[in-house]
Specification:
Elements lengths: L3 E4 L2 E4 L4 E7 L8 E7 L6 E7 L4 E3 L7 E6 L4 E6 L8 E10 L5 E5 L3 E6 L1
Parallel strand pairs: 2-11
Antiparallel strand pairs: 1-3, 3-8, 4-5, 4-9, 5-6, 7-8, 9-10, 9-11
């Protein structure tokens, strides 16, 4: 069973920064990709940023130029550096890991989420 533990959320003023961390219970290099998603009240969960095992990245248009996803393989940890935060970034942020099995069927694993609140 894979466990993902997020940390780093909190309350910050608009224009501020936060760094989220997600620690995986197995080697982070075993995942096809890992990513950050967020869900604001009354809205659907959406992709924020994703990084593949080959270190390719993609971002939601709303966070490009402000957020950076990265990974430390030695620590089995994924990060999301969030700069120039806006009130509309307020949400619960979740990390997700995509684990392939022997037949390359993907199973998604989710963390418990961490709250990010940006005040205006």
């Amino acid at each position: 069973q894979v466990q993902l533990v997020e940390s780093g959320g909190g309350l910050v003023q608009a224009g501020g920064s936060l760094r989220l961390s997600c620690v995986t219970s197995r080697s982070i290099t075993s995942f096809r990709a890992t990513g950050w998603y967020r869900q604001a009240p009354g809205k659907q969960r959406e992709l924020v940023a994703r990084i593949t095992s080959g270190s390719s990245t993609n971002y939601a248009d709303s966070v490009k130029g402000r957020f950076t996803i990265s990974r430390d393989n030695a620590k089995n940890t994924m990060y999301l550096q969030m700069n120039s935060l806006k009130p509309e970034d307020t949400a619960v942020y979740y990390c997700k890991a995509e684990l392939p099995n022997y037949y390359l069927i993907i199973t998604d694993y989710w963390g418990q989420g961490t709250q990010v609140t940006v005040s205006s």
